[in-house]
Write a structure and sequence with these properties.
The chain is an alpha+beta fold. The chain contains 7 helices and 8 strands. The strands form 2 sheets. Strands 3-2-4-7-6-5 form a 6-stranded mixed β-sheet, covered by helices on one side. The chain has a two-stranded antiparallel sheet with strand order 1-8. The radius of gyration is 40 Å and the shape is elongated. It starts with a helix and ends with a helix. Residues 99-109 have low confidence and may be disordered.
Length: 261
């Protein structure tokens, strides 16, 4: 498999990974905004929230492009991951009235879910600052509801299940063609990985052969160490060169001195 085929397989696999999987769901029309707070540190029980934000939340955004979904990071060490959902129900029929009620908790018996009607005061928490209701809903104080649930100390699968429960979203299931395509892409991905491993081993063996060849050439081309006899001979020759006259004039002068003596 060539590199182009491998890139195509990875691109198709990434696209299917966004379209299908945990978090792939269609939100009802009442959901107008979702805001998520994820701390920078995961050592306070926020590992599942980070995995949900990175892996599952993009699928929710893919299937709901018109719903604003925002994420903010919190730098406090003791901060807890939370998700706030803004619900704006359809306009009530003429003649029907709904009395505001105090904040209460719901979510199928889960104490981590809080519901705040529009008429109730919101706590002074950071998560409500980025969750401004639409102008039409803000004009009518009974027209929207905010639901907040904690994601701290939860696995990403539990967070997805809680999101579907709170929002009433409809999960997107894979069709037969998509399942067949997933199987084909998985088979091609495994074949590509196996070929990559074979190429990696082949390059490693070639590099090992090159290293051995370079080592052998270095041993052949290395200068030989002179022996003791050759060193002594070289020293005697150098001493003799020092005793010889350097020029012919010096040699004639030395010969004249010898004759006079």
């Amino acid at each position: 498999m060539s590199s182009v085929d491998g890139d195509w397989v990875r691109a198709c696999h990434q696209l299917l990974n966004v379209r299908l999987g945990p978090g792939a769901a269609v939100l009802p029309s009442e959901i107008k905004r979702i805001h998520v707070e994820v701390p920078w540190k995961i050592n306070n029980g926020n590992r599942g929230a980070r995995h949900f934000w990175r892996n599952h939340l993009p699928r929710l955004k893919y299937h709901n492009p018109t719903v604003p979904i925002t994420v903010s990071r919190v730098s406090h060490l003791d901060a807890a991951a939370e998700m706030a959902v803004l619900l704006v129900p359809p306009e009530p029929e003429p003649g029907s009235t709904s009395a505001p009620h105090a904040p209460h908790r719901d979510g199928d018996g889960d104490d981590d879910v809080e519901t705040y009607p529009a008429a109730s005061p919101l706590p002074a928490r950071r998560i409500f600052l980025d969750l401004a209701p639409p102008a039409a809903a803000a004009a009518n104080t009974n027209a929207y509801t905010i639901k907040v649930f904690r994601m701290q100390h939860k696995q990403e699968a539990d967070i997805v299940a809680q999101l579907l429960l709170v929002t009433g979203a409809r999960p997107v299931l894979a069709t037969k063609d998509e399942l067949w395509e997933l199987d084909e892409l998985e088979a091609k991905r495994r074949a590509s990985e196996a070929e990559s491993l074979r190429e990696r081993d082949r390059h490693a063996r070639l590099q090992q052969d090159r290293d051995l060849l370079a080592q052998a050439k270095g041993q052949l081309l290395a200068p030989r160490r002179p022996s003791a006899k050759s060193s002594a001979a070289a020293g005697a020759a150098a001493a003799a060169d020092l005793l010889l006259p350097e020029t012919e004039a010096e040699a004639e002068a030395e010969a004249g001195l010898d004759a006079e003596a």
